[in-house]
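Q: Here's a chain of 147 amino acids. Please give me its 3D structure as tokens.
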Amino acid sequence: MAAATAAAVAGLVALVGLGFLMGQALLIPPLAASAALVYGAPALPPAQPRSVIGGQLLSACVGFAVHAVAGSSLWAAAVVGGLALGAVIAARTPHSPAAATAVIVALTGPDVFLHLPLLALASALLVLVGVLAARLRPGPAYPAYWW
């Protein structure tokens, strides 16, 4: 429990610190949920790098698509949450926090060319901290698989 907590704090603080240096917000609420999976349940399929990074990016893309078609509304956000879930399941990148990312994108409509690279960087950083944390604690290796 202490190792998972320390890793979560380290990963989320790393997002804030790097975001501060870049002048960008890297910590969005769904990434805290991603951190909970990566550090608290590292053997589960939703915690694997393919699911964390791929699921987040795919869901964000679904959010951008729905936003482009339907605009920003709670109705569109409700639809995109379900569509994102279907997309990550179909792509074999299950990652439940990513549905929240899709909802945020649909509601706020951030710049796609800024948001996607930042989301990829933030997701990869969470995975990297998970890999490092796994090397420092006893127990199963992380990740269980990359692809």
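Q: Can you summarize the key feature?
A: The helical segments are 2-22, 29-40, 49-70, 74-90, 97-108, 112-136.
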